[in-house]
Write a structure and sequence with these properties.
The protein is α/β, with parallel strands linked by helices. It contains 7 helices and 14 strands. The chain has one domain: Ribonuclease Z/Hydroxyacylglutathione hydrolase-like (Metallo-beta-lactamase, Chain A). Bound molecules: zinc ion (2 copies). One zinc ion binds next to α2.
Amino acid sequence: MRIETLVVGEFQVNCYIIVGDDNHCLILDPGKDADAIQDSLSANGLTVSAYLLTHAHMDHISALADLLDNHPAPVACHHADWAWAFSSENTMPPFYPSPRQPEFVEHRALSEGQAWRDAGLMYQIIETPGHSIGSVCFHFPENNVLFSGDTLFAGSVGRTDLPGGDSRQLGASLEKLAVLPDETAIYCGHGPETTLSQEKKTNFFMQRLPAGLSSL
Ligand SMILES: [Zn+2]
Ligand SMILES: [Zn+2]
């Protein structure tokens, strides 16, 4: 596994290009700047096996339709977020109009405990609602890597005051992440990468686990 990080859009989302076997890759959270993402694909001779969406906020998916035009592949997203991904409410003026609906898309509805394999890489789905109702984390156990979206950041967690957000659910989701191996590398939706052990030691929200979650 090789991971390339592109910081895209006004909200500085980490779009990850996850390269596996035979120059095939996964694109996680194509938030904006489709041209920059496509330039990277071309420069490295990559073929897209699938698109992975940690959640459907516009800053994480606004390049999806443009990429699909040239690099068709299945799109993996929890159905609870897919339901509103391209709606007029999913907007943050003036930076993000609502994302363009792809003309054709093969949607993979994600749910808890599923295991998928693309580009020779196996990953499991952990449902982590709280930041949005259909947020998921992608865990690659053979590589000790987790992509946490906006659920967990280095030193912080995602906001829960947007539609569908729920701080108690976020607390329960963090509890699920806390049982992964300590050495798990965490690639977040925004900001630097971290490790689970580092977050357990220093992240205020992880230190509250398992007690006190209900008051989060
Ligand atoms: Zn978000
Ligand atoms: Zn975000």
